[in-house]
Amino acid sequence: MPDFLIAILAILFVLGIAINIHEFGHFIVAKIFGMRVEAYSFFGLGPRLFGFKVGHTDYRVSAIPLGAYVKLYGDEGAGPLEAKDATHEPVPESELYELRPRWQKFLVMIGGPFMNIVLALAIPFTMALVYGVPANPSPIVGFVKVGGAADKAGIKAGDRIVNFDGTENPSWNRIEDSALLIPEKQVPIAVERGGQRIALNIAPTKVTENGQSGGVLEMAADAGTEPVVVGSIDETMPAATSGLQKGDWITSVNGKAIRNTQEMKMMVAESKGAPISLSVTRNEQKQEITTYAVAKNDDWLIGIRFDQTLLRNLEPVGIGGAIASAVDQNLRILRMTGSALGQVGTGERSAKDTVSGPIGIGQIIVTTVFASGFIGLLGVLMAISLSLGVMNLLPIPMLDGGQIMVLGIEKVLSWFGKTLSMVARERIQLTGLGIVLLLMVTVIFFDVSRLLGK
Q1: Amino acid 83: pLDDT
Q2: pLDDT digit string, tens, across residues 226-275
Q3: How many other C-beta atoms are found inside a 10 Å radius of the C-beta of residue 120?
Q4: Is residue 104 situated within a structural domain?
Q5: CB 57: neighbour CB atoms within 10 A?
Q6: What is the mean pLDDT of residues 167-183?
Q7: Tens digit of each residue's pLDDT (9 = 90 or more) over 352-378
Q8: C-alpha closest to that of 141 among 175, 167, 182, 166
Q9: With 70 as the cut, is the pLDDT of residue 99 above it?
Q10: Which three-class secondary structure state does DSSP give residue 399?
Q11: Taking 80 as the threshold, does the pLDDT of residue 27 lie above it?
Q12: Do 330 and 432 sit in the same domain of this protein?
């Protein structure tokens, strides 16, 4: 299949599911309450391109490729973004959205974000039941990149991290998450070495991927014992010319047995171009291969990638463990997103390096599908669905949170015997539309700026 077709299918897969599960939430709640649904656009806003009608509902594809929508009879709140139908027919008052109690309208509005959050929880829950959950490694350092941030800070393999940026006894995941948000910022770190506590300082190295900047510590947790198997070989590097093959199981380097890929990487880096003797098992036969490393990307490499399918350190769990894992993964995303946006607000972090628009999201999706296949897109779908659900709860007109805010205003006015006029509602919606369009233009500007390297 051509790469461009894979990229298009990947984007449609992620965004199509995330957006339509949201609209389905509105749709199904309205149907449960017996409200008549005028239109359900699976793709796009504005004028109808094509579709089909079942009962009173027109299922359609629309002209403007910016999301999807559900249009209820009697709901003029979302009118600014939707096409008007040319024909009208009498509708029983019992089926009109506008005449329903506010609590039913609230449930219709909350249905979209609710379904997004359910999807965000369902993906890691199902993955945990099927495959298990990643073991959260102990904060013991197993690998330190030569010349990297951890090496410059004085951290050594075997150190146990007991404090990171003020957090005592942090988990390894918490350390990596925190570092991601503070590139190039000096923070305190304490390690336990030989029974002694040693206070150090570390500045995560800034890396940029898909236009997004983050910090990495250039060290890895002790992986324990794992197979060191060649997954792929760079034909332009020494490993290929030395005779290494895909599937070779590397058991020792320079006569020393290795426990994991981390030890392999350290010994290759320490060779600094000197000959490296590898003991490998191939088709149940032992072989000795001599190769060497070359300097590339600030590292010493022989030109192999390890078989990742053999490195997945997953632990089986039951329903309770799967639920806990799903909640934890979603809370991690919310915590990191909240921290990053907070840094934008205080000026510690650039909005351009933090916020992605449709172009940036598309880049992430395409990069992920080519690196990990369509199964790898599930993690991206989880994050996007969660973000879509939470962001829609913001009290901005045109968003679900804004609609809920209007319901609240109407309730307060009803205490004084007053109502919110249609003119006021339309002005609120047009204001919200202006805000949404301004945000869209801003994030697209950020996306284009990152593409152009400005």
Answers
A1: 46
A2: 788 888 888 888 988 998 888 888 988 998 888 888 888 888 888 888 99
A3: 27
A4: yes
A5: 19
A6: 88
A7: 777 888 888 888 898 888 877 788 889
A8: 175
A9: yes
A10: coil
A11: yes
A12: yes
The pLDDT value given to residue 419? 83
pLDDT of residue 154: 93
Determine the straight-line distance between the first and last CA of the chain, rounded to whole angstroms: 34
Q: Residue 93: what pLDDT?
A: 63
Based on the fold, state whether residues 168 and 259 are members of the same structural domain: no
Classify 89 as helix, strand or coil.
coil
Same domain, 161 and 287: no
Average pLDDT for residues 420-427, to the nearest whole number?
A: 81
- Which CATH number do you get for residue 197? 2.30.42.10
Whether 239 and 153 map to the same domain: the answer is: no
360 with 452, same domain: the answer is yes
The owner of tokens 């991927």 is: 209
**pTM across the whole model:** 0.76
Query: H or E segment at 57?
Result: strand 57-64
Domain that holds residue 332: 100-135+315-454
Task: Kindly give the pairing relationship between strand 304-306 and strand 230-233.
Answer: antiparallel
Q: Token match 């209820």: residue?
A: 72
Residues 378 and 431 in one domain: yes
Hey, what are 108's tokens? 């219709």
Domain count along the chain: 3
Q: Is residue 278 part of a domain?
A: yes
Cα dihedral 336, 340, 345, 351 in deg (nearest 10): -150
Residue linked to tokens 């070779």:
248
pLDDT of residue 108: 92
Q: Cα–chain-centroid distance for residue 131?
A: 19
Closest CA to 40 of 75, 10, 66, 72: 72
Using the predicted structure, report yes or no on whether residue 409 has a pLDDT greater than 70. Answer: yes
Q: What DSSP string runs through 119-171?
A: HHHHHHHHHHHHH-EE----SBEEEE-TTSHHHHHT--TTPEEEEETTEES--
In a domain, 8, yes or no: no
Among the ranges given (103-117, 168-182, 302-316, 424-438), the one the predictor scored with the smallest mean pLDDT: 302-316
Domain's final residue, options 285, 312, 339: 312
Which residues are CB-neighbours of 326 under 8 A, at least 6 positions away? 121, 122, 123, 124, 125, 128
399 assigned to some structural domain = yes
Contacts of 65 (CB under 8 A, 6+ apart): 43, 44
Same-domain pairing of 322 and 454: yes
Q: Tokens 């199904």 label which residue?
A: 28
